[in-house]
Amino acid sequence: MSPKSAAVLLFFFVTVMAKAQIDTAKIKSYADQVMVRINLDTNIEKYVYTEGPEDKAIETSYTINNKTRASVSIDYRIISATVSFTPNFLPGNNDDELKGSSSYADFRFRFFPKKFIQTVYYKNVKGFYMENMKDFFPEWREGVDPYLQFPDLRIQSFGGSTAYVMKNDFSLKSIYTQGEWQKESRGSWVPFVDYDLSIFRDILNGQKSKETQYSFGANMGYFYNWVLGAKKRVNISPNVSLGLGGMFSSSWDIRGDGTKFNKENTQYLTIRFATGLHIGYNTDRILFGGKFNVNASAYNEKGDQSVQNNNLYGLLYIGYRFPPPKVVERNYDKIQKKIPVL
């Protein structure tokens, strides 16, 4: 998607949602309850490398074999923690013979101090294959011939984001983690910054290589929470955001004795776009719903070369809330005395 198209889409969402806003809203908090959620999503980690002029561009798409991810989330007070993994018994996670073996792990924490949302994460992905084989090998047969595989390509990411909700009586937490529930329809602008350190490692033909990428971005998003039903138990929540950022990359090859050569330092301007839709059902004890999200970033390596990182996924979740065990409540209170922000 071009920046111009994304800007038009953002303007459309904002115009429609702003007209529907209500001046007063109520939020029900479940901070005094422990919430456990089971999530199942289709995670597609994909990198698209484009080379050549726009009318004759050649794209190469690299992705991971694991397509279905499971995760467990636990929320209490202002802390939300999620651990993600990819079980082999789930569909799309065990086609190793043709696509090679992939592994995926993701640890994510969110904190909700007042109107801020702070996220930190660690992600480890290993094992990619070239998805668009037919574009380069016309005789290649899907489901019969193996894909070109990069089993040693590993990407580790350490990062986070800091967001600020500008409107009062709007709960972004009700969309992110369902730790609160919006009782009346309302929307808000949400500016946020994100930052990431990614380490790429690979071995091709016995030659080791490594690249580190530092990236950051400033973004503006709009979120709307449309609450439906006589008991206000259903919500439909679209969102869209645009951003600009920078990336600083350092890459090098590694000799057998550990020395570096072919070192290169580069800087890029990045364009970010994200959109999503959350549909949920909530009671004081049981909650369930689904989400669809698209996150895309792109940067130009040279005048006729670009790289895109597209993350597209759908998610289903079911959760349950219950009073905290006394030991959990007591220990949290002790920690809160030492760290008041909690």
Describe the structure.
This protein is mostly beta strands and 342 residues long. It has helices at 3-19, 96-99, 133-136, 173-176, 326-338; strands at 27-29, 34-41, 44-51, 58-64, 69-76, 79-85, 103-111, 116-130, 149-164, 180-182, 186-204, 207-228, 234-254, 260-282, 286-302, 305-322. A hairpin with a 3-residue loop joins strand 14 (260-282) and strand 15. The model is unreliable at 10-25 (pLDDT under 50).
Helix content: 10-25%
Derived from helix and strand composition plus strand pairing, the structural class reads mainly beta
**What is the overall shape?**
globular
The mean pLDDT is: 84
Q: Any low-confidence stretches, pLDDT <50, length ≥5? A: 10-25
Secondary structure tally: strands: 16
Number of helices: 5
Rounded to an integer, what's the Rg over CA atoms?
22 Å
Please summarize the sheet with the most strands: 14 strands, antiparallel
Gap from first CA to last CA: 40 Å
- The secondary-structure element order is HEEEEEEHEEHEHEEEEEEEH
| Proportion of residues in extended strands | over 45%
